[in-house]
Model the fold of this input.
Amino acid sequence: MKFLRNMLDKLHPMFDRGGKFEKLYAAYEAADTFLYTPGIVARGLTHVP
Done:
């Protein structure tokens, strides 16, 4: 799993603003979030308006 994390981290600049695949940033972010838990998560009760 460390290999996959490193690969996603190396590809990130290509999808960031000004990168070669900037228009596919949403797809990259969706795949990254699906495979790994984001650094900021809700603790306790959540509220969705």
In short: Helices lie at 2-15, 25-35. The mean pLDDT is 89. The chain is about 50% helix and 0% strand.
